[in-house]
Amino acid sequence: MHRIVRKRVLGPNLVELEVEAPLVAAKARPGQFVIVRLHDKGERIPLTLADWDPREGTLTLVAQMVGKTTHQLGEEYQVGDAILDVVGPLGNPSEIQNYGTVVCVGGGVGIAPIFPIARSLREKGNQVLGVVGARTKELLFWLDRMEEVCHELHVTTDDGSYGRKGVVTEPLREILASRPVGHVWAIGPAIMMKFATRTAQEFGVPITVSLNPIMVDGTGMCGGCRVELEGQAKFACVDGPEFPGEQVNWDLLLARLSAYKEEERCALEQYLQVKEGRR
């Protein structure tokens, strides 16, 4: 059992949880993830690591409440409650080295997992330029943390309620056009990563993305997280979750992400109905 030691609401349907998991915290690296199961009848969901403290033996997870399990985690689980399973660290860590100048792009909840990558890249001596964005001001978070690890931080919102009005690919394009960049990381919605990849390709700059396909076991056995790279099947849980963005079949990934939309909608509706009935 993994006790929740801290909980904070970051924005609408967005929560930060600090969870006891000393064995995972001792081995965690940027870019990796955990599989979480709330209780013995719960589904398994992947959450990318946002931070960790080996001394305290804790993990920091950021969850966006979009489906049944994330709603249950965000609404019902409080400080002192225990999560049944936190399995990890899973996946391959980010390739952290000195590239010179790097750009770290975080979109929406992707701001959380891009933070430890940016921090590690700076510790390696890179000039770290950050670009973060969200639909609106209320969905932005951890700007203070990103400012601490980035030499420059560009902030966008779709509606212009904070920072620059627009999407993250606009400052990314301007940065790539203005100076040599050794590498780009982008984490966020698949459609954002797709267009960030196209932008990096225009300037011939390699880009790494973190893919979020449907996942069940997280160990390469189920095949649910299959993605296509240059015509070859890969599994995000064991071959990734990070991949070269220019190799990803984005159209196939986007189609697979929507394959169970109806089932996910029904599960959430049933959960909300049961929850309402308990009041």
Structure characterization notes:
The chain is built from eight helices and 17 strands. The protein is of the alpha/beta class and 279 residues long. The protein has two domains: 2-90, Elongation Factor Tu (Ef-tu), domain 3 (Beta Barrel), CATH 2.40.30.10; 101-210, Rossmann fold, CATH 3.40.50.80. The protein has a seven-stranded mixed beta sheet with strand order 12-11-10-9-13-14-17, with helices on both faces. Strands 5-6-2-1-7 form a five-stranded antiparallel beta sheet. The protein has a three-stranded antiparallel beta sheet with strand order 4-3-8. The two termini are 27 Å apart.
Structural key phrases:
alpha/beta, 5-stranded antiparallel β-sheet, single chain, 31% strand, 279 residues
Give a concise summary.
With 279 residues, this protein is of the alpha/beta class. 30% of the residues lie in helices and 31% in strands. The longest helix is centred in the last third of the chain and has 17 residues, at 261-277.
**Coarse structural class:** alpha/beta
The number of distinct structural domains comes to 2
- Tell me the Rg in angstroms: 18 Å
Shape designation: globular
**Straight-line N-to-C gap:** 27 Å
The CATH fourth-level homologous superfamily of the largest domain: Nucleotide-binding domain of ferredoxin-NADP reductase (FNR) module
DSSP strand tally: 17
| Assigned CATH architecture of the largest domain | 3-Layer(aba) Sandwich
